[in-house]
Structures are given as structure tokens and as C-alpha cells.
Design a protein that fits this description.
It contains three helices and 42 strands. Helices cover 7% and strands 40% of the residues.
């Protein structure tokens, strides 16, 4: 439905009486063209300018499928969508539709800033909201997150949300141990058709103090992380889990492509050992996980080497797949054309460790270059007591083109040339 200037002009007077309230139902979803937004005001196409302390929230209420909300440069307050509360920062917009998303497009210099809020952008499904694309925004993470998706209903999902050419800044300097107390970049439950990617430029997540850039739980459909630069994170770049206590097994295709990651696991409260950069941990049974054209480099910044304790080597490792102590394995894992490298003398565990996958295919031209730890790649690793460190893998394929600096272990033993040839001949479920 197109915007009708006369109708909204009649309603405008009641709006100006209480500018800090949500829009009445008859005004919501009435603009499918453009809403222009500045700090403290918004203006629908063909309509009058309106004042509101949370102009982004109000613009999202006006937006119908296909609408573009354009943000001028400036610092905008945190907002939420999909909640039924009556707070001013809570938008009652419903988003877009397949092929007709609502687009929130920032001009250069448009920032969403948490202020005193724990989260900067909050999304829930207390009523259905879907298909919103955020473009070219700088998101300053709050004390808890930059973006949080709450758990959807059992039969629902957080559907069709995209972040293109966006930056999440956690605001913490690990070298100086100073800055904002950010916890997560994106924490999410029940995503489906989710994208965080660089398209016209690189996306970015950096300087998170305590935990993960992406903590994604119980996916209910496809997830894409692409062309993202990430550095100096408290825990992992991406951790995907599907714990039974949190919901159903994971499903969909998880694509991590073209991401360049440096120096994760830096949180002091984890003794600077906060996990592995790329982590896939249990009950992703109906998922195909593709990690392609990605890099992880750690230990090449001398000012960070002090971030360790008890004489341990700096940093942890690049990639781990395991069962997360759950009863079900992961689905298919494909590693293609990645470059994972620890600086000499750094890294306290096997660089790449894979267990609990229905199938494994290490194909193309991967480079796994270990540092202090002698193992570059371990398949079906053993724990410290010599027992399997997770459910066994199914079919495993390791291309002979895989470059290793360090040993290849299979089931806790060093792979000789004959075993490497056997792994290269194996077919995997792609």
C-alpha cells in the first residue's frame, strides 16, 4: 500500500502531542517508498518531518515491504523490534516480505550506539517480524551485544535478516586492557536465511572484550557469513551450537566464506584461552558446513604476546569441530582453500581438530601452518586420557594438495604416507 499524504497529515497532529510514543496501528506499514531519518526526526516521502527521540524505531513502524529507510550521518540510540512492550525504543514494525525486504540504509557516518542499553539492536518474535536488511551501518556494541536475536517460538524462526557492509565495534583495546565491556558482536537463536556480509566493501567485527563475534545457536535454516574482517576478540570469531536444552537440532547450510580473522580468544577472564576461532559444536546434524577462502592468523602482533599465563604459548588454534558433549554429531564439514597460520612459538593445541562429523572433506588448496604445537591437523583426536575426544567422524577425505606445517594425526597416531594416500582416495558426502 502506498503512502497517502492527506491521511497521515490528519494523524500527524495527534502524533506531535506525544512524540515519544509508538505509532498507532493505523499508521504502521503505510509507506512502501522511502522514509528519511536524521537524529531525532524522520520524514516519510511526501509527508512532513516529525520529531522523535528514537527516529529509527518510528521509521521501522511506518515501513511496509519494499520500503527503504535512509539514515543520515549521526549517532542513533539503540532500538528493538518484535517486542510487544510500549517503550519508546521498541518499534512495532513488522518488516518486509520475501524479495521485498525493508531496507535500513545508512549514509556514511550513520552509527547505532547502545548508550546505557545492554544491547544495541534487539530482535524478538513476540509478534512476527521478518525480512529486514541493514546496510552500511556502524554498530557500537552494548555491554551485552551489538545485535541480539531472542529465541523464537518452537515452530518459528528469526527469518530473513541481513546485515550488509556493516561494522560491529566492541570498543575494547586488548593490548591496553581498556575500553567498553562488550560481550558479543551477534548472539542469535533460531536464525533462518541470515546473512552478515560485505558486498560493496568488507564487513567487520572487532574489539569485542569478553566473548564471540558470532554466537549462533540452534540454526533453523541457512546462515551466511561472508567477506568479514574480524580481529581482537574475547573468544571465537564464530561459534555455532545446537544444544538440546536450547532447542531443536541445527539445520540448513552454514557458509563461512572469504572471512579474514586475526587474534581471537583474548579474554582475560578465560586466561586468554577463550576457544578456537572457527568452532562448530554439536547437534548440527542436518547442517552442511562450508568454510571456504577464509584465513586465521595469530601471533603476528608482538604487543599481544603478553596475553597469556603460566608460561603457556600465546593463543589457541584456528578451527575445531566436535560434538559439544551432545548426543548427536554434526552433518557434513567442507574446508576449501583456507589459510590458517600461527606465528612461530604461538598456539597451544592442534591448529585444526575435527571430530563428530557425518562426513569431512578437506579439498582444494588448504594451508594449515602450526606454530608452537606440533600438530597441524588432527582427525578423530584423543583426549588427555587417551580416549576419543568426541563422536567418531564418518567418511573423511583429505586432499594431497593440503599443505601442512606440523603433523597429521588420525585417531591419535601420526599419519604415514600410506594413510595420507588412503585419505586422499576417500570420497566424502558433499
Amino acid at each position: 500500500m502506498h503512502y497517502v499524504p492527506l491521511a497521515l497529515a490528519i494523524l500527524a497532529s495527534s502524533f506531535h502531542v506525544c512524540p515519544a510514543q509508538q505509532l498507532p496501528p493505523e499508521q504502521r506499514g503505510t509507506v512502501d517508498t522511502v522514509v528519511q531519518v536524521g537524529v531525532g526526526w524522520y520524514q516519510p516521502a511526501g509527508g512532513e518531518r516529525r520529531d522523535d527521540p528514537n527516529s529509527v524505531a518510528r521509521a521501522l513502524e511506518l515501513a511496509a515491504p519494499g520500503c527503504t529507510v535512509v539514515l543520515d550521518p549521526g549517532d542513533y540510540p539503540a532500538f528493538s523490534i518484535g517486542f510487544t512492550n510500549r517503550q519508546n525504543n521498541s518499534s512495532m514494525g513488522t518488516g518486509g516480505a520475501p524479495l521485498r525486504p525493508v531496507v535500513v540504509r545508512g549514509r556514511n557516518g550513520a552509527r547505532i550506539v547502545a548508550g546505557a542499553d545492554h544491547d544495541t539492536i534487539k530482535i524478538a518474535q513476540q509478534y512476527p517480524v521478518a525480512h529486514i536488511r541493514f546496510e552500511n551501518l556502524e554498530i557500537h556494541a552494548g555491554q551485552r551485544s551489538g545485535v541480539i536475536f531472542y529465541t523464537p517460538p518452537p515452530d518459528g524462526s528469526n527469518l530473513g535478516f541481513e546485515f550488509l557492509d556493516c561494522t560491529i565495534d566492541g570498543g575494547f583495546d586488548h593490548a591496553r586492557q581498556a575500553g567498553r565491556d562488550s560481550k558479543w558482536g551477534v548472539i542469535a537463536h533460531g536464525l533462518k536465511d541470515f546473512v552478515f556480509a560485505g558486498r560493496s566493501k568488507r564487513a567487520s567485527v572487532h574489539s569485542i572484550r569478553f566473548e564471540h563475534a558470532f554466537y549462533l545457536q540452534n540454526p533453523r535454516g541457512d546462515i551466511t557469513l561472508e567477506n568479514i574482517d574480524a580481529a581482537r576478540l574475547g573468544r571465537t570469531f564464530v561459534q555455532v551450537v545446537a544444544r538440546e536444552k536450547e532447542g531443536p537440532p541445527g539445520q540448513g547450510r552454514i557458509t563461512v566464506k572469504g572471512c579474514q580473522v586475526e587474534d581471537t580468544g583474548l579474554a582475560q577472564r578465560d586466561n586468554f584461552k577463550g576457544g578456537t576461532a572457527f568452532t562448530f559444536a554439536g547437534r548440527l546434524a542436518d547442517c552442511t558446513i562450508l568454510v571456504e577462502d577464509c584465513s586465521y592468523r595469530a601471533g603476528f602482533e608482538p604487543e599481544l604476546h603478553k596475553l597469556t599465563v603460566n608460561g603457556m604459548p600465546y593463543n589457541t588454534s584456528a578451527l575445531v569441530a566436535w560434538d559439544g558433549r551432545e548426543s548427536q554429531p554434526n552433518g557434513a564439514l567442507i574446508l576449501r582453500n583456507n589459510h590458517f597460520e600461527m606465528a612461530p612459538g604461538t598456539g597451544d593445541r592442534a591448529l585444526v581438530s575435527i571430530a563428530s562429523c557425518r562426513s569431512v572433506s578437506i579439498e582444494g588448496n588448504n594451508r594449515f601452518l602450526a606454530g608452537a604445537h606440533p600438530v597441524a591437523l588432527t582427525i578423530d583426536p584423543l583426549d588427555a586420557s587417551g580416549k576419543p575426544g568426541g563422536l567418531p567422524n564418518g567418511t573423511v577425505h583429505v586432499a594431497l594438495s593440503t599443505e601442512l606445517r606440523g603433523a597429521l594425526h588420525v585417531g591419535g597416531r601420526v599419519a604415514d604416507d600410506a594413510l595420507r594416500q588412503e585419505l586422499a582416495r576417500s570420497s566424502a558426502d558433499r
